[in-house]
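Internal ticket - ligand job 438, shikimate-3-phosphate:
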Amino acid sequence: MNIQFTVLPGGKLQGLHRVPGDKSISHRAIMLGALADGTTEVTGFLEGEDTLATLAAFQAMGVPIEKLAPGHIIIQGVGLQGLKQPSVPLNLGNSGTSMRLLAGLMAGQAFSVEIVGDASLSKRPMQRVTEPLSQMGAIIETSGTGTSPLKIKGHQSLRGINYVLPVASAQIKSCLLLAGLYAQGVTCVTEPAPTRDHTERMLTGFGYPVEREEAKVCINGGHHLQATAVDVPADISSAAFFMVGASIANQADVILQHVGINPTRTGIIDILRQMGADITLYNSRTVSGEPVADIQVRSANLKGITIPEHLVPLAIDEFPAIFIVAACAQGKTVLTGAKELRVKESDRIQVMADGLQAVGIHSEPLPDGIIIHGGQIRGGEVNSHGDHRIAMAFTMAALRAQEKIVIQDCANVATSFPNFIGLVQAAGLQIEENRLST
Ligand code: S3P
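stdout (structure tokens):
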């Protein structure tokens, strides 16, 4: 089924909105809740396809998980040694986070397991996790090109390692820390640049000791996770589309409620402000160990910038949306140091460059980034290549287009942002969703 979005030009963006729960935190709440002693209650959980794939994987390994209300789930933890061998391969769909974090957890189990994903996930690099896991003593078979399916052999005794990450990646860091729960001795991971630290924060929240010294984070095997309550904030990566939409639209004014503003995720705010955006944070507070605020964004005059490379890992998922701001800004925007964008749910540099060209914006893709020349978005037809964030970014582009924008292959918006259409309509966009059989 091809889901196609048709977004009419213009429209407005207004009102008070709460976008769905944080994807990264929702994955981790399921994983740690499942492995804890006792009952974990999660509120604000993202019921997107990616996090539901993680949830189903733990149910398949014998963890009772019940939904009480939308976003409200109860996990009966089975303890670190309580998982059971699933009867079929674990299918993680489109979700890189599920696959990479689970690879670490599965490497320490007393049973063998196979993990698989959809066509896009089956092309993404997995050696970045299987290589350090094998240094810890794991035995994992990949395809000849280092991709999934991953066949993880049970009954291996893992030992802690001291690993320096070759790329700034929270997925690799988290994978190794989770494997470290099952390892003899200390597992330490050193990051080349700060990446999202939700795993470390949540481990602490579940009573598991984690030590950090500057760029190095360490965990010792042999402790327990104690069940707790987790209130998941709204996802700043989903809020980003509204922040971008409100920045580029005329007479826009939105307030986004209860958004996670963990400093390892707020690169989008820093980059938009450098481009001239009008963003105000209110009611800053801490919820379940994570900083949260309400965010107001109003229309602004935007200018192109050179994006500081240190902000890249702090805004890694927001670049499709940021490229739309760059397209509407005066002058050119230059991004470098972002070659990771080429191995996300799609090659986000090429797919965005193609989409921008289709709507009349000139850009120059680079091996590790892109140069975007601000101009007038004309409208046209864009292929999102099944990448949720590209589909949502071009939806917002219609706010400044002269003609409608038609976006193909949008079904995966449901991986991270269920009810995207309903929410953007409520905010003032004129969008229609069509289901076409392929
Ligand atoms: C994530 C880490 C990032 C991010 C992904 C979620 C996580 O991936 O792009 O959407 O939850 O740990 P990398 O670790 O590959 O940068």
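Auto-summary: Residues 2-21+233-436 form a domain with the UDP-n-acetylglucosamine1-carboxyvinyl-transferase; Chain fold (CATH 3.65.10.10). The chain has two domains: 2-21+233-436, 23-231.
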